[in-house]
Design brief:
The chain is mainly beta. The chain has 2 domains: 161 residues, Immunoglobulin-like (Sandwich); 87 residues, Immunoglobulin-like (Sandwich), CATH 2.60.40. It contains 2 helices and 21 strands. The protein is globular, with a radius of gyration of 19 Å.
Length: 269
């Protein structure tokens, strides 16, 4: 069975009345016009291991009038043994989503009323079990075949990730012996979004933020306890209020304990 937009519409009748009433009363906020970047990180995992891959949004959903979420991500059955979805993010108030997942793809459709109102930016988490015979050094792209909020409003900007089959990883955690490092922004100069990949040698509290040249805080991208290994959040070139930042030079700063790393990046139009 291949989950498409039809599957989402099958879920909507029991919520349609509430959603239409809310929209008629102006439930959709003007903020819904701001595109939301939906990101998948880079994750390392050993053959035969299990890896949790969070799908995150660049902003929390409160006030955006989101009544439905629908996405599909192809997988490589030469690498993946099985796939499931953990309902651990902002969709939880709607109950269990409709999920169709196997070694070839993961598809999800969820809908509810009232609209999403959560402080979390995590949408859900994919849990992938890797084949014991998956070739070392293999990279499996994780790209959205589609991602929709409310069939397109607010608009989403998908940002894919990668699952890398590597030695030195166990279970759901990250690789051992990796350095504390912040990679150059990619792309830079950036026109619509840029990725800021970094690695942590152990599970620890870390904060990644973007600052203007005058030291003013522009946007916090990560702030919390993160797994060891590689993380690759995207920045949609918007500040904490959702406004597009001016053209210019910025810098990203990664902090974890006493360790600090910085990278310069350029925003153009």
């Amino acid at each position: 069975m291949n989950l498409t937009r039809v599957s989402l519409r099958l879920l909507l009748p029991r919520f349609a009345g509430a959603a239409l009433v809310a929209l008629a009363l102006g439930g959709a906020s003007p903020a819904a016009a701001v595109p939301i970047t939906v990101s998948i990180p880079v994750k390392d995992v050993a053959p035969g291991g299990t890896v949790d891959v969070p799908i995150t949004a660049s902003v929390a959903p409160t006030g955006l009038g989101i009544y439905s979420v629908d996405f599909r991500i192809p997988l490589d059955p030469a690498i993946v043994q099985s796939a499931t979805v953990l309902n651990d993010g902002m969709l939880q108030p709607w109950g269990a989503p409709f999920v169709n997942a196997n070694a070839s793809f993961v598809a999800l459709a969820a809908a509810g009323a009232p609209p999403l109102a959560s402080a979390s930016t995590r949408i859900v988490t994919l849990r992938l079990v890797i084949l014991p015979g998956a070739p070392l050094g293999t990279n499996m792209p994780l790209e959205f075949e589609h991602f929709w909020f409310n069939d397109g409003t607010p608009a989403s900007i998908p940002s894919g990730g990668v699952v890398r089959v590597r030695n030195g990883t166990t279970g759901v955690g990250g690789p051992e012996g990796v350095p504390f490092a912040l990679a150059p922004a990619s792309p830079s100069p950036a026109r619509s979004a840029t990725r800021l990949a970094f690695t942590l040698p152990s599970s620890s509290r870390a904060r990644l933020a973007v600052y203007a040249l005058d030291g003013r805080l522009v946007r916090v991208l990560e702030d919390g306890v993160l797994d060891a290994g590689t993380h690759a959040p995207s920045w949609d070139l918007r500040d904490g209020a959702g406004s597009r930042v001016p053209v210019g030079v910025y810098f990203a700063r990664l902090e974890s304990g006493t360790r600090v790393a910085q990278r310069r990046l350029v925003v153009v139009r």
